[in-house]
C-alpha cells in the first residue's frame, strides 16, 4: 500500500506492545538488517529517539524494477495505554511532522494506531482542523468528526479523545514559535544581550511571562501524600511538593519509613524518565535518599549546593566510610575536576543486595551556577548517560531551583546535537508539567540561554556548522 499510494510519511500513534497486548507488528527492520515483503526490500537507514517520539528513515526497494524510495516514520510513543497524552507533547510532535514535510511529494500522509480509529482519528482531526482554522479563521470540530465517520466508523473513539483534541487545538493555535536553529543561536543571544527596550517588550521577559501564564493551576488534592501528617515534615520547602501522580515512590523502605520522598521524575530529551529531581536530604530523610538511589538504579548524582557543608547531608566529605540506615557507603575515589566541581565515586552496599557504584558530581555556587559550570556538568553526565539508561539524580536545596535549570540546559544541549535546534521555552514547559515550581526565577531562564550560547561557542559549533 505504501509503495502503491506513493506514501513518503507515516505517523504511527501506538506502541508495538502496551501492557500485555501486542498492538502492532514491527513492519520495519532493526538497524543493519533488511526485511523482505514480497517484491519489496525494506531497510532502516537512521533512527532518532526523543522523549515522546522516534523518527525513522526507511528505504524501500522494488526488486522487480530496481526503483528505490525513502519513507520517514514518525512514531509517537507517549500515548498511554488507557487515556490520552498530554496535549503539549502531541502538539510538539505534530509540529515536528509538518515542519519535516518533504517538498514535492504528492502522496498522502499515512496515519495508523492499532485499530486505526481512536488515536488515528484524533491525530487526523488535529492536523486537518489546525490547517482549516489557520486558513478560514473558523472551526467546527463536531462537524469534522461526523465527516470523518462517514469515511470510517468510530473515528475518535472515546469522549476523552474528543476532549484531548480540543485542548490540543487550543495549544496549537496559541503556541508561539520559539525554536532557534543552531546556526542562528549566536545572533539571537547577542540580540537578547543587547536588548535595551522596556522590560515588558524584551524577548526573554515576554517568554518568561508566558511560562507563568501557561502553568496549570494545581489542585491541593494532588498533594495528598506530601501533605499528610506522616510526610509533611520530610519536605524542606512546604511550597515545593511533588504531585501524587508525579512523585517518585520508594519500594524497599525499612521499618518505620514510608514510600514517600520529595522527588519527581522528569524527562531528558530522549527519555521520559531521564532525571530524578529531589531536595537536599534532611537529617531524617538521608536513608530515604539512598533508598531511592538504590530502588531506581540511579548511578549518577548531580549535587548543586550553596556551601560545602550541605554535602554532608548526602555523603561524608571527610571520612571514607559511613552507615546510613541499612546502607553502607564507601568512598572509593575523590577527584577535583575544575570550576569548583568535584567527582566522588561511591560504593553503595546493603546486606541483601550486591554493591553498586554511584558517581557523584558536586558543584558549589552562591545562587545560580555559572554558565561554565553548567557546561562542564552537562559534559560529565553526557558521557555517563551514553553508557547506561539509568536516570540521573539531580539534587538542589528544595529540589526545584537549579534542578530545573540544569535539566532544561542539558536537554537543550541534546536537542542541538540531535536536531540542530533547541526550543528552551518548550523544554522548560515540559519540565513544569512534572514540577510547576521549576523556573520561578527569571535569572534561571536567562542563564539557560547564556549557558547554551557558551556551550555552542566552546564546542566551536558555530564555526563548523
TrEMBL record:
Keywords: Hydrolase, Protein phosphatase. CDD domains: PTPc. Residues 88-163 form the Tyrosine specific protein phosphatases domain. SUPFAM superfamilies: (Phosphotyrosine protein) phosphatases II. Gene3D superfamilies: Protein tyrosine phosphatase superfamily. The keyword Hydrolase applies. Residues 1-172, 204-455 form the Tyrosine-protein phosphatase domain. It comes from the Eukaryota. Its EC number is 3.1.3.48. PROSITE patterns: TYR_PHOSPHATASE_1 (PS00383), TYR_PHOSPHATASE_2 (PS50056), TYR_PHOSPHATASE_PTP (PS50055). It holds the Pfam family Y_phosphatase. It is an enzyme of class 3 (hydrolase). One of its GO terms (molecular function) is protein tyrosine phosphatase activity. InterPro entries: Prot-tyrosine_phosphatase-like, Protein-Tyr_Phosphatase, PTP_cat, Tyr_Pase_AS, Tyr_Pase_cat, Tyr_Pase_dom. PANTHER family: PROTEIN-TYROSINE-PHOSPHATASE, RECEPTOR-TYPE TYROSINE-PROTEIN PHOSPHATASE. Belongs to the protein-tyrosine phosphatase family. This is protein-tyrosine-phosphatase. It comes from Mytilus galloprovincialis.
Amino acid at each position: 500500500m505504501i509503495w502503491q499510494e506513493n506514501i513518503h510519511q507515516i505517523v504511527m500513534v501506538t506502541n508495538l506492545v502496551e501492557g500485555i497486548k501486542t498492538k502492532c507488528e514491527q513492519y520495519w527492520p532493526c538497524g543493519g538488517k533488511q526485511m523482505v515483503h514480497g517484491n519489496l526490500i525494506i531497510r532502516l537507514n537512521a533512527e532518532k529517539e526523543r522523549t515522546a517520539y522516534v523518527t525513522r528513515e526507511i528505504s524501500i526497494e522494488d526488486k522487480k524494477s530496481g526503483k528505490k524510495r525513502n519513507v520517514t516514520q514518525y512514531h509517537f510513543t507517549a500515548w498511554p495505554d488507557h487515556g490520552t497524552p498530554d496535549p503539549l507533547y502531541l502538539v510538539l510532535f505534530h509540529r515536528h511532522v509538518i515542519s519535516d514535510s518533504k517538498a514535492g511529494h504528492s502522496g498522502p500522509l499515512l496515519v495508523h494506531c492499532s485499530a486505526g480509529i481512536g488515536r488515528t482519528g484524533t491525530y487526523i482531526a488535529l492536523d486537518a482542523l489546525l490547517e482549516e482554522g489557520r486558513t478560514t479563521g473558523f472551526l467546527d470540530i463536531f462537524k469534522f468528526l461526523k465527516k470523518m465517520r462517514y469515511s470510517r466508523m468510530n473515528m475518535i473513539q472515546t469522549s476523552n479523545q474528543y476532549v484531548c483534541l480540543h485542548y490540543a487545538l487550543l495549544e496549537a493555535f496559541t503556541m508561539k514559535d520559539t525554536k532557534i536553529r543552531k546556526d542562528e543561536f549566536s545572533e539571537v543571544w547577542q540580540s537578547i544581550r543587547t536588548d535595551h527596550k522596556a522590560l515588558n517588550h524584551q524577548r526573554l521577559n515576554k517568554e518568561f511571562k508566558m511560562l507563568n501564564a501557561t502553568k496549570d493551576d494545581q489542585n491541593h488534592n494532588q498533594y495528598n501524600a506530601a501533605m499528610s501528617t506522616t510526610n509533611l515534615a520530610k519536605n524542606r520547602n512546604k511550597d515545593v511538593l511533588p504531585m501524587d501522580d508525579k512523585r517518585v515512590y520508594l519500594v524497599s523502605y525499612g521499618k518505620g519509613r514510608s514510600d514517600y520522598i520529595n522527588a519527581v521524575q522528569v524527562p531528558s530529551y530522549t527519555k521520559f524518565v531521564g532525571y530524578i529531581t529531589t531536595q537536599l536530604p534532611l537529617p531524617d530523610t538521608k536513608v530515604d535518599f539512598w533508598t531511592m538511589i538504590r530502588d531506581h538504579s540511579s548511578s549518577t548524582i548531580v549535587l548543586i549546593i550553596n556551601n560545602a557543608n550541605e554535602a554532608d547531608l548526602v555523603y561524608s566529605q571527610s571520612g571514607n566510610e559511613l552507615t546510613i540506615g541499612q546502607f553502607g557507603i564507601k568512598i572509593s575515589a575523590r577527584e577535583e575536576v575544575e570550576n569548583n566541581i568535584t567527582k566522588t565515586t561511591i560504593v553503595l552496599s546493603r546486606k541483601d543486595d550486591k554493591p553498586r557504584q554511584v558517581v557523584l558530581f558536586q558543584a558549589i555556587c552562591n545562587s545560580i551556577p555559572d554558565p561554565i559550570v553548567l557546561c562542564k556538568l552537562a559534559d560529565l553526565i553526557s558521557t555517563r548517560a551514553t553508557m547506561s539508561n539509568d536516570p540521573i539524580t539531580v539534587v538542589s536545596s528544595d529540589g526545584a531551583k537549579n534542578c530545573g535549570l540544569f535539566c532544561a540546559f542539558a536537554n537543550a544541549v541534546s536537542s542541538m546535537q540531535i536536531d540542530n535546534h533547541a526550543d528552551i521555552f518548550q523544554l522548560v514547559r515540559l519540565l513544569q508539567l512534572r514540577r510547576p515550581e521549576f523556573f520561578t526565577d527569571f535569572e534561571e531562564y536567562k542563564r539557560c540561554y547564556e549557558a547554551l550560547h557558551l556551550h555552542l561557542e566552546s564546542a566551536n559549533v558555530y564555526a563548523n556548522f
